[in-house]
Known about the structure:
The chain is an alpha/beta fold and 258 residues long.
Amino acid sequence: xxxxxxxxxxxxxxxxxxxxxxxxxxxxxxxxxxxxxxxxxxxxxxxxxxxxxxxxxxxxxxxxxxxxxxxxxxxxxxxxxxxxxxxxxxxxxxxxxxxxxxxxxxxxxxxxxxxxxxxxxxxxxxxxxxxxxxxxxxxxxxxxxxxxxxxxxxxxxxxxxxxxxxxxxxxxxxxxxxxxxxxxxxxxxxxxxxxxxxxxxxxxxxxxxxxxxxxxxxxxxxxxxxxxxxxxxxxxxxxxxxxxxxxxxxxxxxxxxx
Length: 258
Ligand SMILES: Nc1ncnc2c1ncn2[C@@H]1O[C@H](COP(=O)(O)OP(=O)(O)OP(=O)(O)O)[C@@H](O)[C@H]1O
């Protein structure tokens, strides 16, 4: 299954955000959308999720226009973790995560499958120990993991996450990246907007590099994360290499003088 953008243009009012964007994402891959502030990453993710309808072109899930899918069908297929997601209701963690089952619900109560998906999501995100706490009383990092649990509870085929590492300490950042990697390895499609290039090269295997609303490069990590591309897009002097354990690492030397 593929999720793709064909010739997408999008402007927020008068402000252009995406121009002629063609990008293709596949299940089984951990894809990252990279690019400087304001490059259009969140806008692209929102178009892929069907939250924003392109001004021209389309976002397609297996050939079907995402923005024209019935909302419930779309919610079953695509789980979205929005940027800076907040929780305004004073409900329990368990109840919030259970909301992730909403697209699957047929009756009033939770089915056995609903309960099992909620338990799995709480366990996968390390949030089961505070399932009975009130979400508005959690720390930012705890809340971020609960919101990911809500996405996982919906058992979507695709997980779209906008800055999923925000508010997480280094240990939990690694847990989150490992979780996303596992989801991709299990056959789901994972697309995340990240700012941390070190984490991106280490955990993802497909990258879309945006620059000023257009695709600068896309493909596997080694072909996109080149010193020349990083210099042109971020203005940094950096080098991708493979360490002695066979892991991809990025060495950032600094900014290139203007
Ligand atoms: N609601 C909005 N109204 C007007 N302009 C917007 C709105 N949201 C985004 N933009 C503009 O659209 C462009 C792309 O924004 P977007 O949030 O997609 O970038 P981004 O790459 O995700 O940025 P960041 O890394 O800073 O989160 C920017 O020029 C931004 O100022």
